[in-house]
Amino acid sequence: MSYTRRVPENTSLYKAVKKYFPRFVQRVQLEGKSLPSFVHKTFRKYLKCGRLIYGSIRLYCYTCRRTKLVSFSCKCRGLCPSCSARRMTEASILQSETMIPHVPMRQWVLTFPHPLTLFLAYRPDVLTEVLELFVKVVRYFYRQKCLIYNVPPIDHDDPSYLDLYSDLYPNDIGAVTCIQRFTDALSLYPHFHTLFTDGLFAVRDYIIEPENKFESAQFIPLPQLTDEDLIDVLIYFKHRVTKRFVRRGYLRPTDHGDDSFELYWGSDVLSEEEQSLLRCYAASSRLKYAFGERTGQSLQFEYSEFATHHAKIKSPLCVEWGGFGLHAARSLRADDREQLTQLCRYIQRPPLAQNRLQMLDDGRFYYAFKRIWSNGAKGIMFNGEDLIERLAALIPMPRKNLTRYHGVFAPRSRFKHVVNARSKRDHDRFVRVQRHKRRVYYTMWAELMRKVFVHDVLGCQFCNGRMAVVASIQTVQIDVLECLIKYDGGARDPP
Asked: Phi and psi of 376, rounded to 5°?
């Protein structure tokens, strides 16, 4: 399909941001508060995304002498649906085609109690600790299940036999985690979507030279996973998290009982920007209003949901324990690469679907849910300023990566060169891309646009030829832009 220049100013999201973002900032300032600078920057850059007046590139077809203009993008996270979709597709291509080898994969989804999600959203450093702890717990579980029948004879009576084996014969899992910060109702809810290799990479041949032992790494698949296994993993993870939080001072016991704790937010005195951001987070996570006349109740930082109760099996391979939830029912075969690509795109999807947001006749905005809720709700209504408030809470903090790589996929993994070489061999076997008679493992900008939006940007819609970039146009005046648009698509001499 030929590329057609998008018009973001006609979308409901653009109209809402352009009209109501200044009003929202004014409402916050009337209360003597201010928003962080990265929130202002993200909204301002979104208003310039896809607008020709703020810059574009010019394409020319030397066959039929036609020209075409393609506008610049904002490259923002968390707000722009177009840039988020392109980033999603780029990451999914990297993971499914050049990083993950042809081994079985399984998706693990970890959710947290609601009071804890607000704390994790506000403290990304603590969120990183929790993620590392979760991967460590799952790695220990994989070692227990995969190595018990596949290791050389060692003393299994020793409780630390797994650590001893790992020191002598290296082994590790592979995992890709995407930290999602949203729900279907555009509310703040951090949780983990992690793709684990459904097995373990291990050195099984122990009669080899130490310098070449990684070359003999083999994949040991995980045996059948059961609900009891998930309960054990979740109980152990909950115990480790509670112990870690108490030791670091994030949880402090209260006078209400032995199982009641109070969250410590890191500082007794918060700046105005931190207070405003925390109010947005709290209102978004609890579906309340943060500013204005309908401001919700005061924040309650007291947390007492670490009390132990019985595990609940919601569905096969989906359990709950103490407010935590763990889901591991989605698994993929080694040869199912198409489903792997779709799953990689799913875990990195943007928070807002532009086609589900519409502006009503009365000026309000309606956001439709992807699925009907159990109580029959199909969507949610927003006023303009309330929608901006909800979107501001979903913008991630700068320089905080939402995609993490663990185990053999980590940048400094000892298995990385072996796994990557195997992945590239498998990729060569199934998909061969030839450009200028050489193999490449990256995806160009035009190819990403074709995969994301099903549009061939460099394809000429008149002669089906290939167009070339001839100019990069920065910010232009209105009269110059009108002249460029007037001759856009017409036959002209080469620039």
From this structure: 90, 0
Q: Read off the tokens for 145.
A: 């299940």
Q: How many helices (H) and strands (E) does the chain have?
A: 13, 22
pLDDT in tens, 60-101: 888 888 888 888 888 888 888 888 888 888 888 888 888 888
Tokens found for residue 16? 């809402």
Q: 67-71 and 318-321 as β-strands: parallel, antiparallel, unpaired?
A: unpaired
Give how far the C-alpha of residue 309 lies from the chain's centroid of Cα atoms, to the nearest Å: 31
Question: How far, in Å, CA of 495 to CA of 484, rounded?
Answer: 13
- Nearest to residue 92, comparing CAs of 339, 310, 335, 454? 339
C-alpha distances in Å from residue 386, one per residue of 38, 288, 364, 383, 390: 19, 10, 10, 5, 6
Q: Using CA atoms, how far apart are residues 112 and 190, in angstroms rounded to an integer?
A: 8
The alpha carbon of residue 36 and the mean position of all alpha carbons in its chain are separated, in whole angstroms, by 22
Residue that the structure tokens 């115990």 belong to: 239
Are the C-beta atoms of 317 and 232 separated by less than 8 Å? Answer: no
Quick one: which of 220, 186, 251 has its CA closest to 382?
Answer: 186
Structure tokens at 495: 């620039």
Closest by CA to 201, choosing from 226, 172, 160, is 172
> What length does the chain have?
495
Interval 222-228 mean pLDDT? 90
Hey, which residues does 491 pair with through a beta bridge? 66
